[in-house]
Specification:
By secondary structure, this protein is α/β, with parallel strands linked by helices. The chain is built from eleven helices and eleven strands. The strands form two sheets. The chain has a seven-stranded mixed beta sheet with strand order 3-2-1-4-5-10-11, with helices on both faces. The chain has a four-stranded parallel beta sheet with strand order 7-8-6-9, with helices on both faces. It binds adenosine-5'-diphosphate.
């Protein structure tokens, strides 16, 4: 067993439902093994400024069901500099923190890797982001909740779309990745799904809508990932309207509701298992790795790899979605 006495835990980058469940799991597992656990507020910026939540074990009751993160999160330009990381190290040295658990997206884990290399401190990363775009895991903490939020919202929009013969363009999160769009699109039976990973051709979309119209569809839902190459939902709707006037067109941008809300059962279990594993791996001497779930098994991936590669979307799913909506 590695001789770890004091773990610092932080959340960084975009918040995601389930981060609290992960903080709780890290804290409870550490405490169970006689390790002190301290929370670091506002990600790396709080680390630089020495904003700590001592005795975190007293604050993790009743948080497993809460969205957001009790430790708050932030982005920190200063941490990207050597000088910033030096300040951060100085702060954790004062508390004698000798290991870190970092919960965040790929940027946060890249930061964790830099820091662990410079200061020779064991760090385990947990993938926390609603976007699901991380290498080394099939699912990230927060993704399942975001998907369910989108599905619930779109089901409601579907009711009004059907009542008024409308074509709805619904923009969901995903600047670089179409995971939320693709899987929510399948779950709501969207007429089409537009994502950054594939080229969007407006003329083809119009042809498809004409086909759908011919098969007597009187309304429709098109899911648009915010990072689609043809633009956001407003822009795409405008372009489609110019060439296709048979439906009344409406746009809904779901925005930040996708980040909030109580985590789903899946996210709570995922975050709990990952938080537990993070501490157990630190105790067994692991460092500079991320805990992920691949083919239903919990695995470790080197932070070197998670920073450099992205987890790819299965494009056949888009083909399948088209067949199922035709
Ligand atoms: P996410 O973790 O959700 O991908 P960001 O990409 O904004 O979010 O990263 C979160 C924070 O991680 C950044 O604000 C910065 O403090 C830190 N970070 C990102 N990349 C690096 C890097 N190459 N070196 C050091 N810190 C980094």
């Amino acid at each position: 067993m590695a001789n770890i006495k004091h773990i610092g835990v932080l959340t960084s980058g975009g918040d995601a439902p389930g981060m609290n469940a992960a903080i709780r799991a890290v804290t409870r597992t550490g405490t169970y093994h006689g390790i002190e656990v301290t929370g670091i507020y506002r990600g790396y910026q709080g680390m630089i400024e020495g904003e700590f939540h001592l005795n975190l074990k007293k604050s993790v009751s009743n948080i497993i069901q809460r969205g957001g993160t009790i430790l708050k999160t932030a982005r920190s330009e200063e941490f990207k500099t050597k000088e910033g990381r030096k300040k951060a190290h100085h702060q954790i040295q004062k508390l004698e923190i000798d290991a870190l658990v970092v919960i965040g997206g790929d940027g946060s884990l890249r930061g964790a890797l830099e820091f662990s290399k410079e200061y020779d401190i064991p760090v385990i990363g947990l993938p926390g982001t609603i976007d699901n775009d991380m290498y080394g895991t099939d699912s990230t903490i927060g993704y399942d909740t975001a998907l369910n939020t989108v599905v619930q919202a779109v089901d409601k929009i579907r009711d009004t779309a059907g009542s008024h013969n409308r074509l709805f363009f619904i923009e969901v999160m995903g600047r670089d990745a179409g995971f939320i769009a693709t899987n929510s699109g399948i779950a709501v039976g969207a007429e089409d799904i537009l994502i950054p990973e594939t080229e969007t051709h407006i003329d083809e979309l119009i042809k498809w809508l004409q086909h759908e119209r011919r098969v007597n569809k009187t309304s429709g839902i098109i899911i648009v990932a915010e990072g689609d190459d043809a633009g956001g939902a407003y822009e795409i709707a405008r372009k489609v309207e110019e060439g296709f006037t048979e439906y009344e067109t409406k746009v809904t941008v779901l925005g930040h509701i996708q980040r909030g809300g109580p985590p789903t059962c899946n996210d709570r279990v995922l975050a709990s298992r990952m938080g537990y594993d993070a501490v157990m791996h630190l105790l067994s001497g692991e460092r500079s790795k991320m805990v992920g779930i691949v083919n239903n098994r919990f695995v470790l991936t080197s932070l070197e790899k998670t920073g450099k590669r992205a987890h790819k979307i299965d494009k056949q799913l888009l083909e399948m979605a088209k067949v199922l909506s035709s």
